[in-house]
Amino acid sequence: MEHGRITAAPDRADMPEAVPEPLWSHLFRISRALAGRLDFLSAIQSVAREIARFLPYDHLDLCLLRHDGTLSAAYETGIDTAWGRLGNASVQSSPIRDLLLGRFDHMLTGDAMRDPRFHYPGAFTAPIHDHGLRARVHVPLVVGGEIIGALSISSFRADDYGIPDVAAARQVADLISPYMFALREAERSRHAAIIEAEARAREEGLRQGALNLTEALEQERQRIGMDLHDQTLADLSRLMRDLSRPGSVDAEAILSRLDDCVADLRRIIDTAVPSILDMFGFAHAVRVHLERAAGEGTRIEVHDDSGGAPDMLDPVVRIALFRIVQEAINNAGRHARASRIGVRIAGRPRLRVTIADDGCGLPEEIRRGRRKGGMSHMRTRAQLIGAKLSVRSGRTGTSVSVSLGGTPGTAP
Known about the structure:
Number of domains: 2
Low-confidence stretches: 1-16, 407-412
């Protein structure tokens, strides 16, 4: 006997193969009730009333085997039990595992509360006792010789069913099995289509985000070039002209202007390459940038509770994380009108950096990403390194949190 497949049916000798004449009309109405039903629950509920006409029950359920071999939740009518809330489960935990594995071609019991076939270590039999399910009939749903699930009918009364009831249940199961198989395959196709669509959406979003980030980086390079040309090079050119004039040298003034040029160059270099990360570490680099970005009179705080975890990240991930924090700090400094800006670095349960202020909140077009710029670039950078970015903004302030699920020292 193969797993989940009936190769022999020793009990069928006791069963009448022909459909009894009175049952035909019920089966016809069941078939008609199934038409147009697109989900398992509505399908089983649509036929339940007709089944009750010739096979009275207190509880009726249908369970299905998934393609991965697990058992889906029971689709119930009559009463609601824990079987219907269980979700996917192992076949081994089902009280009717012998039926689902093809060991029996039906199960009939006068009292399931006492029948040892339903009670073994690991069996989920609580609903049997919780609801007093005694007499039970179980028949497999079979398509092409393969068991795809089971139909179960239960009564609160003991010894309520016999062999003729098993035969009737089998006729119902044979009728509805192809329909349930089609629903299962349709659901599987829908699920696969949803997964594929979500994957494509993520890929397209990441691709578009990468394009936006590339565009932003190109704009940043142009800005740096213009800063060097329009400011630093212009200042140096004026210095050279002044120095070339006889008798016009003022050493103190020249030194002051050179100091300004050096400061401008340092600012441009720090913006382009955050070398301070390598020299002094992540927390110190965050503090330096916070001091530069915060407005005059703004109280700043940096707390590193991670034991230096960001400095154990892959360099590419660390720089991307620093850029996200930079942008969040810039937004707080430019838009929040805050009296306090704080940064907290936490290492447990995962590496998380939170930037919070007590300002007026971000403009809606920035917060919702309607305007290209910092916030959308932050989200793209977070996606590229597998980080999660969350933003909360309101009248009492803004909190930006970026968390990494990877192990320090590796890219997530």
